[in-house]
Write the structure tokens for this entry.
Amino acid sequence: MSNDVRVTDLLNLPTLAGTRVVAGKAGLDRRVQNVSVVAGTEIIEWVKPGAALLSTGHPIRERRENMREIIRELDARSVACIAIRLGSYLDDFPPGLLETADEAGLPVIQLTDSFAFDDILIDVLRRINSALLADLELAEQVHAVLADIVMSGGNAGRVASEAARLFAADVALRDPTGAPIAPTPSGVLLPPEHWQVLEASARDPRTGTEPVEDVVLRLGGPRNLLGYLTARRPGRPFTSAEVRALERSAAVAALALAQQVAVRDVEAQFQSEILARLFRGDYDDATGTVPRFRELGWRLECPLVVGTVMIGAERGDRQGDARAAVWLRSTGLALLRQSLQTAGQTVVSGVVDDHLAAVVPSGERARLEAAVQRVMDTFHRRPADELEHHINAGLSGDCRRLQDAPTALRQAQVAAGAARRRAGQPRPCSFTELGALGVVLAGHSAEDDAPNLVAGVLAPLDELPGREAEGLVATLQALLADNLSLADVARVLHCHYNTVRHRVRRLEELLGPFSSDADLRLNIILALRLRDFLEEGGAAGAGRLSVLDNGARRGGGDSTFRPPPSSS
């Protein structure tokens, strides 16, 4: 193993036996890169970073009045230590030298008379050269291992395991969200880390020489971030040579990941084309398609469930849309396929019309919902370039024939749109949750016709002054939610019974006799639900929806509606 030479290592050399550290003990971990002798009075002019300086008392005696400034300058130039021999020229250290060295953490070593400077120089250089040789041996080992991985077509996980073995450390590969890509050599997945923590601590290549216990390296470039390599070795920091070797390992891991992504993209493109044809209605049960797909390990036996994941912008941002599409095609699709994959069988999934789609047997609806939820949760921990986008997902009802796949896709898309407008924690929405509203929205031109339907039914209310319209709409919603019970509506709205009767008469003047006409009442309910679905600001809309949803479950009270007389 490579070991950088530190000041404390020099004290164990034979030629420095018996020496004492008289000041600056806090700096004994300073790195030693070279050694030189200070012969003249110019102490600071020719020193190099990491130098161990050997000196007789002569230069110090001549500059004793400036020793505080000299010690500070040596510290500023990253000198490792200064070793001084007393006796011939200097009987004791000048005032201020030791105090200033303690303040700066610059080790001052008092040499003995046992060895000449030449012997000490040779001993120190031998120690530095042995460390350099160890660095070269480490580099050769890493090069051989990485070359074998590349030549044998090894995957990125092998890079991590070999690096962990070479450096006796915990080495892991993480995706751009901070989640582990592959198990550690022990077979245990390390806990995920937030991408912001990894990005903040990621090292720039070839920077920093101080030992570190944690190393984070980016895999790939800023425009094609594949993830991170993390290495930890508590109690024994990584040397600069080891960090450089880890950088080379990260480069090979990035190459292996890029190859995996390329293969995955080809497979995803093929499956996306199959899905596109399926959703165009090109396949049916009579063509023998299912047995051919089964030979490929694809599960398309009916009944099926279609799931979709869609990303939309909060406001117009075409550049953000492009980044969102990249995330969906790479990270999102990989997560979905990984969550749904089983031994020997592949779930057909891909990108269709700029959204993720997957088809599974209806018995695996729960697995599909969990996989889609994982994609949504990961999106909220997405990598460094934040997107002003939202993500939503939907699941279709059971599709009992292959030729009905286009209808199932439409159902999943409608459910995803409904999920966007639902209050609470984002989660996938099932088409079956929408009831009659889903059937209306799933029509081929429902999105275009829905505003016309809403306007045609509710226009008389929208033309009223704001305060009057607000009171009438609240009364109408309460009536529909409480089975047309005037008494219950009066209690819910905290108003007098007669006030409700007057409002009902006014509503029937505007909208028609909905109390006696069941078809008209259904149109009004659907119009209210559609308007709530089409309006932005999901939390408020969800509140109005909940009033209508509760109506079917609420009972009691005066459930018989009695139209108010013509005069009160």
Notes: The domain at 281-427 is CATH 3.30.70.270 (Alpha-Beta Plaits).
